[in-house]
């Protein structure tokens, strides 16, 4: 009976999935178009909440909670914090450079082209095999099944930290 | 996931339970404001409120009526969407958070097996709301207060979470109910005194209370991030703050003090134990506030990054090793 209740929950959430997709996309679109950078960050937070809700619709409450904890509560707050220290708030969209916009667009399209086939192949149905979110099950999932992904992500984070240090330590031109 | 609900789990009952919780949040806010006034008065050899109702008990009710009747003033150059969204974003996570706890063995809305993670995720949403308020108000005091709040919250959230992990290791679960059930033999505060101390200090800082009330330092920043809010909007921030205090004390009672478990030979229901522990911890928080002076900002930050976080990491590693060796 509990399983049925759970199924019912996910079915309802699943039919709302397009709302969550819309939330993520609208948030994302606002994040790259709004002139005020703080508004952009709050829109990004909205988009990330949409992604978290999508995880929920796909039957992963743990990943959804982590998404909110890390990306909305952590990364977005840290971004806001960094922006406060970094530059003038009323600055419009970085007057920068059509060239940079082109590059960013090309990069985004490249990533989409790479992920597109995978997205098309995946079956977007809730996973019931892992309805078990105990600490032991999570530990096994992270360190056995998803071990390679887990380690790869650690390397990505390390690279990001090193990159941040390099950017921060760059001496101003004399 | 399993359901531990007192009543049949129907939509109507969920709505009713939500209404009861909302009423509790409002009542609890009023009670704590009264208590804080009384406690601070006693600490300063005064009497506190005495006029309205018995021992001034209705003073808070009178304040609520005043706040409800007050005009809502929106300053002219605020960032409107953010200014209006902020009180909601601060209050809603708090309301959701308080619904997660097991108040008694069979008195819990829903036991999530990732309950602890959910609580911290909700807390994170609140920080964003605080920042929104500070920025949206278009006021230098509000902005300074919000910046201090964010810096402080980032610094103290880390030891807070690190201090709860040893308990998760010991109980082998993140479900709040199962953590309590794992403490029938021994409360976790006995095995984890250091973690409890770190948790409680970080919790006081997370709720922006003295000696960590730098984001709202009245003598420097008027009222910090909610300077520009009046009437019920201000009341939402205030209510969120006092409910947040209650939530961190509920987490402490659940993780370290055995939640609803008391000596079994005493014929006292579990929820009395639970709320008894919660309000005892709340009194300690008030005691701290009226005893210690405010810290300086650099002291605050170096205490978090230099003392609490390393201590919490060492404590976590030692706990992990001890569990591996002796279990």
Description of the structure:
The complex is a heterodimer of chains A (about 170) and B (about 325). Helix content of chain A is about 80%, strand content about 0%. With about 170 residues, chain A is mainly alpha-helical. Chain A has a domain at about 1-90 and about 105-135: NADH-ubiquinone/plastoquinone oxidoreductase chain 6, subunit NuoJ (Four Helix Bundle (Hemerythrin (Met), subunit A)), CATH 1.20.120. The longest helix of chain A has 26 residues, at about 60-85. Chain B has helices at about 10-45, 60-70, 80-100, 115-135, 140-170, 175-180, 190, 195-205, 220, 230-255, 270-290, 295-325. The longest helix of chain B has about 35 residues, at about 10-45. Residues about 1-5 of chain B have low confidence and may be disordered. The interface between A and B is medium-sized, with 27 and 31 residues.
Please supply descriptive tags for the structure shown above.
heterodimer, A: 174 residues, mainly alpha, Four Helix Bundle (Hemerythrin (Met), subunit A), 7 helices, 78% helix, globular, B: 327 residues, 67% helix, disordered N terminus
TL;DR?
The complex is a heterodimer of chains A (174) and B (327). By secondary structure, chain A is an all-alpha fold.
β-sheet strand percentage of chain B: under 5%
In DSSP terms, counting alpha (H) and pi (I) runs of 4 or more, how many helices of chain A? 7
Rounded to an integer in angstroms, the radius of gyration calculated over CA atoms of chain A is 19 Å
Helix content of chain A: over 70%
Proportion of β residues of chain A?
under 5%
Low-confidence stretches of chain B: 1-7
Major pleated sheet of chain A: none
């Amino acid at each position: 009976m509990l399983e049925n209740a759970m199924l019912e929950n996910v079915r309802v959430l699943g039919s709302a999935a397009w709302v969550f997709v819309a939330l993520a996309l609208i948030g994302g679109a606002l994040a790259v178009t709004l002139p005020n950078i703080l508004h952009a960050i709050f829109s990004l937070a909205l988009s990330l909440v949409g992604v978290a809700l999508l995880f929920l619709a796909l039957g992963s409450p743990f990943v959804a909670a982590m998404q909110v904890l890390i990306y909305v509560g952590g990364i977005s707050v840290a971004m806001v914090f960094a922006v406060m220290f970094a530059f003038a708030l009323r600055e419009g969209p970085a007057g920068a450079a059509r060239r940079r916009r082109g590059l960013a667009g090309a990069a985004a399209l490249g990533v989409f082209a790479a992920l597109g086939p995978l997205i098309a192949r995946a079956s977007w149905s809730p996973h019931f095999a892992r309805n078990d979110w105990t600490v032991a099950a999570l530990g096994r999932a992270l360190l056995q099944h998803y071990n390679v992904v887990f380690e790869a992500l650690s390397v990505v984070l390390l690279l990001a930290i090193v990159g941040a240090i390099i950017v921060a330590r760059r001496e101003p031109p004399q | 996931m399993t359901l531990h609900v007192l009543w049949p789990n129907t939509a109507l009952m969920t709505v009713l339970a939500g209404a009861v919780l909302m009423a509790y949040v409002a009542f609890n806010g009023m009670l704590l404001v009264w208590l804080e006034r009384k406690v601070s008065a006693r600490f300063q050899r005064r009497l506190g409120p005495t006029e309205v109702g018995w021992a001034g008990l209705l003073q808070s009710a009178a304040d609520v009526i005043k706040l409800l009747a007050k005009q809502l003033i929106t300053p002219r150059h605020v960032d409107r969407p953010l200014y209006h969204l902020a009180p909601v974003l601060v209050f809603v996570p708090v309301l959701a958070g308080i619904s997660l706890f097991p108040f008694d063995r069979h008195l819990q809305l829903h036991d999530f097996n990732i309950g602890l993670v959910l609580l911290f995720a909700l807390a994170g949403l609140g920080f964003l709301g605080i920042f929104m308020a500070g920025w949206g108000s278009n006021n230098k005091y509000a902005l300074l207060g919000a910046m201090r709040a964010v810096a402080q919250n980032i610094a103290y959230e880390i030891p807070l979470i690190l201090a709860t992990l040893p308990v998760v290791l010991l109980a082998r679960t993140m479900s709040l109910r199962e953590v309590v059930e794992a403490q029938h033999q021994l409360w976790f505060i006995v095995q984890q005194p250091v973690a409890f101390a770190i948790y409680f200090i970080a919790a006081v800082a997370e709720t922006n209370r003295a000696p960590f009330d730098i984001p709202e330092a009245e003598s420097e920043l008027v009222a910090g991030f909610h300077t520009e809010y009046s009437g019920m909007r201000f009341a939402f921030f205030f209510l969120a703050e006092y409910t947040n205090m209650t939530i961190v004390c509920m987490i402490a009672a659940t993780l370290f003090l055995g939640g609803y478990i008391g000596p079994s030979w005493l014929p006292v229901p579990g929820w009395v134990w639970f709320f008894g522990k919660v309000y005892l911890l709340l009194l300690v928080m008030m005691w701290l506030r009226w005893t210690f002076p405010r810290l300086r900002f650099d002291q605050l930050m170096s205490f978090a990054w230099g003392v609490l976080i390393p201590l919490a990491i060492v404590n976590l590693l030692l706990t992990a090793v001890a569990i591996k060796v002796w279990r």
